[in-house]
Amino acid sequence: MPLIIEDGRVPSGWAEKRNLRPQIAKERHPGSLNLALINNMPDAALEDTELQFFELLDIASGDVPVFIKLYSLTGVPRTDRGQRRLNSFYSSIDELWNSPVDGLIMTGTEPRQPDLRNEPYWALLTEVLDWAESNTVSTVLSCLAAHAGVLHSDGIERCRLSDKQFGVFEFAKTACHQLSDGTGGRLRFPHSRWNEVRADALIACGYLVLTQSAEGGVDSFVKKKKRSLFVHFQGHPEYGAQTLLKEYRRDIKRFLKLERESYPSKPTGYFDEVSAQLVAEFRDVALSDRREELMEGFPEAALSSTLEKTWHSSATAIYRNWLGYLIAKKSDMPGFSAMTAPFAIVERKRSAVR
After folding, report:
1. How many CB atoms neighbour CB 228 within 10 A?
2. CATH 3.40.50.880-classified regions of the chain
3. CATH class of 4-240+309-353
């Protein structure tokens, strides 16, 4: 059963991709799930982020009906175009307080202030976090939202990195947990961040670190807060195959426009050998002749053709387990594995026809 967008407000990109007609679902199946996606990404990534989460949840949910509603925090800087999109497809955050929500997903955004508590949306963000503790079965916080969550709940400060944590990293499972069942010994996920929260600070405040590595740092961690299991990702399981390329291109353009001082490092573990040579050659030219016009020669088409979503299976497994957790807790049924078995069967069937 396809993912069901609440109130028939189906974003055009998803409607075209799935050949859907807007419709309002009046009745819910007893086994369905209600999700809220609070998408705070900048305007340039707003639609891509919608599609990434829709595709991931659609695959992970199998035959379980999933109803999802879009929100965004007020106070996140928006252009007129971005605000028009919110007006067309997003609901007011005021509607969230009285909505039945099993699971909530909140993305980060590009920070403007060194201290997150000085961001214009901070007060509303913390109000959502406090509400989610008592009104959701589980809450997923992505990247900056994860940093905001631990800062608000436990006073854990994020630490500035010497360079951007950028690329696809391999992580080992460091604890047994329902969310990482069936994912294998090691998982791959994309990361794109200038800051981190560290394992020692998290563990001292009662968080369970699920995945980490020496190169990538902490990847995912969890903590029960009142009624809700809070799941934190410093990375981006939802990313599409070309998302890191788009970010890399954006950062190069900022360098050429003199909006940043240093040339961006290429994403780790992302390009093959031929592509790595192409980006190295472009870097040499850009450093010797720093002009925005050079972006016309950026080898985007050649790079795009070689990219693979190597984290697809890890991302699908994690989110399938998360949806299974919601069902098990919502139904008040013991035995997480028994609830998630149907998800695995559905995914094997889908893989067979791809």
Report:
1. 22
2. 4-240+309-353
3. alpha beta
Residue numbers annotated as active site: 143, 236, 238
In tens, the pLDDT along 269-285 reads 999 999 999 999 999 99
pTM of the model: 0.90
| 322-353 confidence digits (pLDDT tens) | 999 999 998 774 433 433 444 443 333 333 33
CA–CA distance, 149 with 312 (Å, rounded to integer): 26
